[in-house]
Design a protein that fits this description.
This protein has about 180 residues and is an alpha+beta fold. It has one domain. The chain has 5 helices and 8 strands.
Length: about 180
Amino acid sequence: MTDTQWPRWVVLHQETEGDPHRYAGSVHAPDAEIALQNARDVFVRRPRCVSLWVVQADRILARTAEEFALTPPLPLPQREEGKKESYYVFQKVGQKGVHQHVGEVEAASAEEAMQWAWDSFNHKNALVWWVFPIGEVAKSGPEDVEVYRIAETKRFRDQGEYHTVATLRKLRERKERNNAR
């Protein structure tokens, strides 16, 4: 049997200008454009959002603090001229926290990027690290921000605001009183 599941895309969102991008969840889509549309539909309905990024999940290299403890990073290689790629670096700090963007590094491979990330950013409290190529990220554009802001103008009601049960109870009592007469 063949796998019919679309690839999984990790969704990263930025609530306001200047905030780091944070992990929001994931969507399945056949390509980056549809992944962005799905991400918008799923993750931008209620929270504020000025920017969305999606990256295919299999492009993310992840390491936990335990993995670093078992196999510490190798000494950093000398930076050589050659084919380098820019990588985003994300950290998760704390059990209840989410992955958030902490910076970028240049490296020849994802493994090397992970080593540079470990050496370049504060790793004392980080539980999980992610690195992935910047070129693999599909990003929303400035024109999309207006679409995201539509959600700010809508009034979303909590189910507790609907007094359906109390209203039905009153109607039933009124009907019983009328039938008793």
